[in-house]
Every structure is written in C-alpha cells, then in structure tokens.
Amino acid sequence: MAMTMTQKILAAAAGLPSVEAGQLIEAELDMVLGNDITSPVAINEFERCGADSVFDKGKIALVLDHFSPNKDIKAAQQCKQTREFANKYDILNFFDVGQMGIEHALLPEKGLVGPGSCVIGADSHTCTYGALGAFSTGVGSTDMAAAMITGKAWFKVPSAIQVVLTGRPTGFVSGKDVILHLIGEIGVDGALYQSLEFCGEGVAALSMDDRFTIANMAIEAGAKNGIFPVDEKTLAYCEGRYQGEVKVFQPDPDAVYERTVTIDLGALKPTVSMPHLPENTRTIGEVADVKIDQSVIGSCTNGRISDMRVAAEILKGKKVAKGVRCIVIPATQEVYLQCVKEGLVEIFIEAGAVFSTPTCGPCLGGYMGILAEGERAVSTTNRNFVGRMGHPESEVVLASPAVAAASAVTGYLTDPAAL
Amino acid sequence: MKAKGTVHKYGDDVNTDVIIPARYLNTSSHQELAAHCMEDIDKDFVKRVQPGDIVVAGKNFGCGSSREHAPIALKAAGVSCVIAPTFARIFYRNSINIGLPILECPDAAQAIEAGHTVTLDFDTGLITDESTGESFQAQPFPPFIQNIVEKGGLLESITK
Description:
The structure holds two protein chains of two kinds.
Chain A: H1 5-14, E1 24-28, E2 31-35, H2 38-48, E3 60-63, H3 73-88, E4 93-95, H4 103-109, E5 118-121, E6 135-138, H5 141-150, E7 152-156, E8 160-166, H6 175-186, E9 195-199, H7 208-216, E10 225-227, H8 232-238, E11 259-264, E12 271-273, E13 281-283, E14 294-298, H9 299-302, H10 305-315, E15 325-329, H11 333-341, H12 344-351, E16 354-355, E17 376-379, E18 395-398, H13 401-410
Parallel strand pairs in A: 2-3, 2-5, 3-4, 5-6, 8-9, 8-11, 9-10, 14-15, 14-17, 15-16, 17-18
Antiparallel strand pairs in A: 1-7, 12-13
Chain B: E1 2-9, H1 16-19, H2 30-34, H3 45-48, E2 54-56, H4 69-77, E3 81-84, H5 89-98, E4 102-104, H6 106-111, E5 117-121, E6 126-129, E7 135-137, H7 143-151, H8 154-159
C-alpha cells in the first residue's frame, strides 16, 4: 500500500509495516510539549488520575513562553505550578525565563526535534516541526497528560493534500507570503483532518526559516500537520543541534493524495490576511489606505533571525511613523543574542521600535501590546480572529516581517518594495 | 445517554479565541473560564445559558488554538452538546477527552434555529427538534468514545 510521508512516519512510530488513511493507530512519541497555559491543565489531570512518574524525563519539554516573564499574579501561579512539576519529575527540557524562547522556535533550535520525529504538543502550532521532516501535531492538555504518563498517543491516520512548489520567490516574498497565499486558496478548513505535504523543486529555494513559517501555519488551514521533505538544508540545520537519529522518510511515488495544489513561488507577491480570518487574503497591491496603530514583528511564526534581519534591513536609517507603536520580539535567547551581535537591536531602537525579550505575549492578546477598542495592528503572527490581540472591536492584519516593518515606517499597510 | 436543552446558534468558523479569549487563560479554574465563555461574540451568552443547553453552529467549529479551556468553558457553562457540520480536529479531540459530547450533522446544523428545544440521544445519534418535530440522524459515537463521554472524560475512563 503506497503511503504519504506522514503515513510512513506514523507507521514507523506505531511499529507497523504500513498504515492507510482513516486507520486508528497508537504511536510512540519522541517528544511531548507543553507551555505555561496548557501544562497546568495537563498537570491537574496528571495528578488527578494518581500518576506518580513520567514515561521519560528526557522526552518532555515544558516551556514558559506565553505569559512569561509573568504578566500578572495568576500567570505567575501557573508558571510556578509548571516549574514545580518540572522540578519534581526532573524534566530535563524545562525552559524558564533566561533560557526560554517561544516553544516552536526553541525546540528545533535546541535540537529536541528532528527529521522523522513523532511529536505532540499542547499547542496548536506544534505543527511547525514538519519543516524538519517530522510528524508533529497540536493536541489538548488531556492528551498531553496521558502522553506524559504513557509516552503514546492515538491518531487517526490522515489523508493528504500535496502542495507542489515551483519557481523561486522574488523580492520581499517570504515563507509567510507562501502560507498566507495557500490559506487564501484553500480556506481555514481546506485541509481539515488532513496533512499538507509540500514538495517540488521550489522547496530548495526556501530557507529553513521560511519552511518553519509555512509549516507553523498549516493549522490555520485546519491541517493535522504540514510537512517538508528532508534535503541538504534540513541536514545542515540539524548539524550540531539535533542529537537524535535522523530518520529520512519519503512519500511513495504512487502515494494517493486527496488533491494537488500548485504554487509558483515566482508569481507570489507580498500577501496579507485582513480581519478576521487568515483566509481573507489580499496581495499588498490590493489594499490601500489601511491605517495601522501598531506593528508587531515576532512570534512562533516569524520571530527567527532571518525575520529580524529583513525587518532591520527595512527599518535601517528610518523612523517608525508618528502614532505607531512598533514592537519587535525575537523568538529565542539565541535569536536575541544574534540580533545584538549583528547590530540589529541598535537599528530597531534608533528607528523608534521597542525590542523585547522572548514571549508569545501580544500574539494571543496576553500582554506586551494589547490593542484598544478601534485600533488596528499589522502583525507577523498567525491569527487575526475577533479580539485575538485585545479588544473585541480591534483588528489584526497578518503579514510578513517585511510588510510589517514597511508599514511601521509609513503608518499604513505598505509594500516594502515601495519604500 | 440523553440530553435536552435550548439552542444557542452561531455561524461558521467559531474559533477558540472567541469561545474563551486568551486574556482569561491565566487560570485553569473551570468556573472562572465558564464565566467568560463566548463573551467576544455573544456578551449575554453566560447570562442566558441554562444547564443542558445546546450550541448549534456552522462549519469548522472550534478552529484555532489547542486550548482545552475552550471545551472546558462550554461544558462548565452548562452546555450539554455542540452540533455542527464539521469541527476543527483539535477541538473535536479535546471535547471528547474532557467529556463534552459533540455531533457532526450538517442538516441539523442548518435547520435548527436559535431558541428551539432539542433532544439528543447519544446512543443512536438521533437529534430531535422538539419545536418543529423534525428529526436528524448524526453518526453515533463508537462504544469506546461513548464510554469516555459517559465517564466524563478520557482520564476518568482510564482511572475509574
């Protein structure tokens, strides 16, 4: 039976010679992830059912990234509960303030996930690691609790949509524009219960950071996971980071896909998602006179070093427009330090932006950039739902770091090439 | 297992950010979460909702974040079931895991109006709109899922 790349990883994780779409399997997990929002719920469940040990203290990652450094007393209590659990069970991959970064940038950077890994995380953007050729998917806290006890999770084997990438991106077109374009094409439930399997000669033209951004937002099309083939760039990224065994899986040539979507990277333009759904996409040329109050550059989607570099390239020698707050948040301490070394922090501050320590903060309306009634942000984050970044009457426009930086300079949604 | 209640109706793509806004995720208390359920799309929901009430909505219900706080908030607010044509997959999984029954039924989701009284039979998947007399057939849960929902959640089904 011919299998997709995702199906091959799931078959291996379940110890089966082959699997087919719709089959229920139980898979062994290489990593189980939680954060300061979802872990407390999982820990409550873990303790309520009387568990007294974890399956493998090296295969659990707990990252205090959402409302940390603690935004208020309740958040502090949740971080404390997670910290105490991590200490009690000697969780090796526990990341507190000082080491922590946004989980989906941090785990690949620390080499905790790699090609062929089977990963669940109590965070919907866990699908990010598909960029490395891993199967990884978001679950809830109860699944996380059960997985911390057993090291296993059940899955319904997904069918797949094949996304063929051709050509090379030009100008300021980045991974964000690719994934926003795709979501605009297939809709926020276009890949519901399915895998998005990326392939084609265009993959080689995308950096690892681009691939992380694309896989990260697979969930915004409803997908169970998004996955890229493993190539030289993947292996180069893993070199010196990933300690596990690199397991390269390829789809069978005759694997069956529900459908195929082709994207010519060379034809893409900078793309934005207008309120209040990620599928509500426009090219930057199709929007005019959209005023912004805030520009957020960061998040698990776009807080990596290449995102910081392109934002700095655009902001260098310029000023953030009067009346606009520009908030730049590197995703991890490593990215932060690299920004310091490359002089990017100086560029941001001289432009009139703020530069924060890593946190998910503003993306989900937690803190560090909440919107008031009637305000609009352009943001490199991943969701623009009603009230996502603050007041229910505020708006979020999703965009690439290049568009967010250019818009910060003018105060309106702006094509970076027009600056 | 059966349920009966009044319907609260919503559109397509109801996401977890509106079911429970992230500004309230600094707690895992079920009652605190329930107090803010749906407030960004329906300010009065928590005032109107009665134990046993049913949410009927459009496609892709529960899209967005993996926060289990969303089905927890609905269940703790008193909702006995959500009916929609389709559910986002993490929400679907989370709902079953915490013991909130959900039924996929496009015809019922389209036909049943807000304020109607609906009865549900989870053993057979039968949905009856008592206000119009119309019935709809949803796929019933397989026995292992029924067991989880009856026990009140995945971990309850393992430990009790």
